Amino acid sequence: METQTNTKTLVQEKYGAAARQVRENGSVACGAPARRCCDPVTTNLYNEAEMSGLPAAAVLASLGCGNPTALIELKPGETVLDLGSGGGIDVLLSARRVGPTGKAYGLDMTGDMLDLARENQRQAKVENVEFLKGEIELIPLPDCSVDVVISNCVINLSADKDRVLREAFRVLKPGGRFAVSDVVVRGEVPDEVRTSMLLWVGCIAGALEEQEYKSKLARAGFAGVSIEPTRVYSIEDARKFLAKSGVDVDAVAPLVEGKFMSAFIRAAKPGAAKSAGGCCSSGCCG
After folding, report:
1. Could you give the domains of the chain?
2. 167-214 pLDDT, tens digit each
3. Residue 154 CA from chain centroid, whole number
4. What single DSSP character describes residue 65?
5. Spatial contact of 216 and 208, defined as CB atoms under 8 Å apart
6. Cys-Cys with 222: which of 74, 129, 190, 267 at CB 3.0–4.6 Å?
7. Cα–Cα distance measured from residue 96 to residue 100, given in angstroms and rounded to the nearest whole number
């Protein structure tokens, strides 16, 4: 329990600081803890067409490891939930794709990020968006209330991933889809990487091994689980990950070559898919 509390506090502090930097300075320093993995993890994730019409702050505050909205089909009228929505870029992109008859929720526990996201929503003049304050381990939405759950390099930061996945399953309608970008590990990694609290904030130490990720999704009730690598990181990438962390880079880097990757994780909640925007009848989620 203490580890979970410490991790959550660190994440709040570092991502809150990143949001304040964007609002005050118009940028996030690459050396900042929340940007520890900015290169190569968080760069070149969105194309010009996607960024067109979005506030610059929404793009600057993107601290993800992928672009989940580019890899999942979103239909007009659907309801989308982004876990750990940060500055709101994936929420705003989702809102475009589900159209005025759909809705996109963003959930974040950091007040500064929520303030930034709501300002980005205002500037983008997007109406079908709502940002919620809360934790991804306890989603403040009813059972069977969303069609798609997305997330961008946030689930790896949670110290209770089983609970996150159970909550995602709970709020999805039957037939609903889970489609997240996350950092995933292939095989074993050194203990000193796993135990570094600073690296939790930098996207690395909290990453699940890919088979463990699949097993946790299955235990939560999901079917059709798949993990598709989108970027696999090299020794030189690892050096950038581990810089200033106190880890002996020369000793550790060869042991992590090719083991960390950004990946797109897909799964579905079993059951008949509801029509876009349709309700979930009483008892259907049992």
Report:
1. 2-268 (3.40.50.150)
2. 999 999 999 999 999 989 988 887 877 776 566 556 677 889 999 999
3. 4
4. S
5. yes
6. 267
7. 8
Q: How far apart are CA 255 and CA 97, in angstroms?
A: 41
Read off the tokens for 75. 């239909």
User: Any residues with CB less than 8 A from the CB of 140 and at least 6 apart, and which?
Assistant: 107, 132, 133, 134
Which residue carries 């090299």 as its tokens? 234
Measured distance CA(15)–CA(216) in Å, rounded: 26
pTM: 0.79
Over residues 48-63, the pLDDT tens digits come to: 555 566 665 555 545 5
Angle 223-227-232 from CA coordinates, rounded to 5° = 170
Nearest of 90, 135, 128 to residue 108 by alpha carbon: 135
Residue 42 near residue 89, CB atoms below 8 Å = no
**CA distance linking residue 72 with residue 56, whole number of Å:** 24
d(CA 244, CA 188): 22
Q: Tell me the two tokens of residue 122.
A: 């205002």
Please give the pLDDT value at position 274.
54
Determine how β-strand 103-108 pairs with β-strand 79-83. Answer: parallel
